[in-house]
Amino acid sequence: MSKWHASTPIIAPSMLKCDFGNLSQEICRLESAGAFWMHWDVMDGHFVPNLSYGAMLIQSVRARTKAFFDAHLMISDPGKYLNDYIRAGCDAITFHIEAVSEPTALLRQIRSAGRLAGLAINPMTPPAVIEPYLSECDIVLTMSVEPGFGGQTFIPHVLDKIRRLKTLVGPTTLLSIDGGISQDNIRVAADAGCQVFVAGSAIFDESDYTLPLSILERLAKNTVDGASSP
Ligand code: DX5
Ligand code: ZN
């Protein structure tokens, strides 16, 4: 069991939705509100139709917090840039199965740098595409919206994919879900087997971050089988 399994459910604020004019302050506010895992959405305007930020920005705030940095690369040709995100101090690096023809070497490169290796899968991509590589993954991130923008509506049919992945991954792999997570759906996602919940709007649309973080965590703990309840 990895160190992070003991901390699940993990609510991971999606930094895409933060106020970038006050980035350091946003990180402080999140830490004070109890967040210890921050999700950095990297978009290249090519793999997804939006452009966000890259390794340089992440590196610029790395020293300001001890929080876990989870980089989600929504980019074409992730292999070309992996070392930049390793050097920037990301603790986990996740790239998309749709962006590569063979992910094994890249996943091993991330792991051999001592970081968690993640593969992400889009809502319309069948789980069979990712299944041969699950043993190489520390994180499997299921997108519950089409990647590219925050503030979209949760797509419920991805829960079937998560239920299937849950039966296939080993005990040390974390299942993450990303997109449209809210107080209305986090419990069904937890019931399906998710342990890491990326949330943008559900946190940053509120004026105080403590309350949404604690409500989301409580709802995610309250699974049907009670397995992760205290
Ligand atoms: C979408 C990103 C998500 C998104 C989450 O491409 O990967 O992390 O910003 O934001 P909400 O929770 O608003 O969907
Ligand atoms: Zn993301």
Supply the key terms.
19% strand; binds zinc ion; alpha/beta
Q: How would you portray this structure in words?
A:
The structure is a single chain. This protein is an alpha/beta fold. The protein contains eight helices and eight strands. The protein has an eight-stranded parallel β-sheet. Helix 6 (186-192) packs parallel to helix 8. The radius of gyration is 16 Å and the shape is globular. Bound molecules: D-xylitol-5-phosphate and zinc ion. Zinc ion (ZN) is lined by residues 14, 39, 41, 72, 178, 198.
Topology:
Elements: E1 10-13, H1 23-32, E2 37-43, H2 55-62, E3 68-74, H3 82-87, E4 92-96, H4 104-112, E5 116-121, E6 139-143, H5 158-168, E7 174-178, H6 186-192, E8 196-199, H7 201-204, H8 210-221
Parallel strand pairs: 1-8, 2-3, 3-4, 4-5, 5-6, 6-7, 7-8
Bound molecules: D-xylitol-5-phosphate and zinc ion.
Residues 14, 16-17, 39, 41, 72, 74, 145, 147-148, 150-152, 178-181, 198-202 line the site of D-xylitol-5-phosphate.
Order of helices and strands: EHEHEHEHEEHEHEHH
Query: Unreliable runs, pLDDT <50, ≥5 residues?
Result: none
* Structure ligands: D-xylitol-5-phosphate, zinc ion
Rg over C-alpha atoms, rounded to the nearest angstrom: 16 Å
Proportion in helices: 25-40%
Q: Give the spatial strand order of the biggest sheet.
A: 1-8-7-6-5-4-3-2
Number of helices: 8
N- to C-terminal separation? 17 Å
Shape, please? globular
In terms of DSSP E residues, the strand content is 15-25%
Tell me, rounded to a whole number, the average pLDDT. 96
- Helix vs. strand class: alpha/beta
Q: How would you sum up the major sheet?
A: 8 strands, parallel
Strand count = 8
